[in-house]
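Ex. 9. Protein: Dynactin subunit 6.
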Amino acid sequence: MTSKPAAPSNRQSSSAIPLVKPQCKIHPSATVADKAQLIGPHVIEIDEGAVIHPHAKIKAEYGNIAIGKGTIVSEKAIVGLSEESGEDTTLVVGEGVSIESGAIVEARKIGDHATLGINCRVGEGAVLGKWCKIAPLCEVGPNEVLDDYTVVFGEGRKGRRVDVVVRDRKEVREARLKGTEMERQLLRGIIVDMSLIS
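Predicted structure tokens for Dynactin subunit 6:
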């Protein structure tokens, strides 16, 4: 048995570019997973009770990000302004918003209690009213403005409607709020437990 020295490699080694850590203002009751990515030179504010899943990405590269009270940002979701947004811009995500897995949010504002479905996209500069719902895989175009209670379920104006049940029935809104609070409580326990074992 003989050992030969390894042949010289033509591969060049590369080092990863270090990520710029943002100034973060995270409320003590917020849950931010260890594997969540918070990057960029601008300020990221995460309000009380918010939950940021592992592998969610909050990008403060082109402006400040404000995540509202009780908002949930799921795994592989990306929240951040685009380069076209301009300096001194803040992306505001309202209270009780649910940003589901793979969603991309470059909007200027997301209203309270909105739901952004799996792999949906909310374009640069868009403004969503309260209780809006974007269905999975659907898109809100750049600078588009949606009124309160708008549901996006397809392309163009034909893929829009007003959710009159949520708008007109307080008990439905209260039931959704209760369900979202139960989800947040469950997630806090799971995310904390996962960070202890990984």
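Check your answer against this statement. DSSP finds two helices and 21 strands in the chain.
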